[in-house]
Write a structure and sequence with these properties.
This protein has 2 helices and 6 strands; from the N terminus they run ββααββββ. It is α+β, with helices and mostly antiparallel strands. It has one domain (7-119): Hotdog Thioesterase (Thiol Ester Dehydrase, Chain A, Roll), CATH 3.10.129.
Amino acid sequence: MLQGSFYTYSTTNTEGQFCVTFNAQHPIFKAHFPGKPVVPGVCLMQICKELAELHCGKKLNIKTARNIKFLQMLSPNTHPTVQFSLNAERSENDAQIAIRAVVSLGELTFSKLQITLHPQIK
């Protein structure tokens, strides 16, 4: 779980919209990359998963990830706060949830992700 240490979030008035603020002092950025930190793509995927859990109200696991596009470098120093927009489509039996996510700031789009999740089995 990255929420609370790597990033914090707040919701907006629109469903599926999250304002995410990165912790530029997090140890991940000392390795990725020293002096010029970049948010790792795998962390963006994990953040999408965690925000999808909040959005859907249940614990989820990533089943598939496809059409992952990193369009711009995302640095916590130059863009400490970004917008995550999630669009969720649930299957008929709620066995899986397809998420389309866009990570952006105004007109600047950093990433687009399509991931399929399924509820965790207790």
